[in-house]
Amino acid sequence: MSTPQPPYGYQQPVITEQARRKGNWMFRIAVALLVLAVPLGLWSYLHSPRIAVPGDCTTGGTPPKLTACSSATAEYRVTQRANNDTLLSYSCPKGTTRTYRGKYRKHFRSYRYVLCLAPVAKH
Question: What are φ and ψ of residue 8, in 5° steps?
Fold first, then answer.
């Protein structure tokens, strides 16, 4: 049996060493960007106020970032959180010195929330 031949006039593409190296660098750059983007996105999500629940501590910035309550940067404690359905008739409890209104998108829908923040007692 003979080896199958390409059709007449068809020529196998020739990949030069220069093209191979260029493709190799492009792949390396894509992998490096992915390796940097995934942890950065995860860190950003985990420190976002949109996942804050009562009892969590935040920094004093705008927007506030989640932090450990034992951290020196902790300035406020979340006392309550209100979501979309209760925003119009919502008022924060006594002792709240600051509110943060935020929004985020998930599955092509917008969600709004309010965080009631009270100062953290420093020891």
Answer: -60, 135
Which residue, 60, 65, 73, 71, is CA-closest to 48? 65
Between CA 49 and CA 115 the distance in angstroms is 8
Q: What is the C-alpha to C-alpha distance for residues 93 and 78, in angstroms, rounded to an integer?
A: 11
**Residue-wise pLDDT tens digits, 26-58:** 888 888 888 888 887 776 666 667 778 888 899
pTM: 0.59
Spatial CA neighbour of 75 closest among 100, 94, 51: 100
Three-class SS state of 64: coil
> HEC states along 2-53?
CCCCCCCCCCCCCCCHHHHHHHHHHHHHHHHHHHHHHHHHHHHHHCCHHHCC
55 three-state secondary structure: coil
Q: Take residue 101 and report the two structure tokens written for it.
A: 């209104």
Contacts of residue 6, defined as CB under 8 A and 6 or more positions apart, other chains included, come to: 12
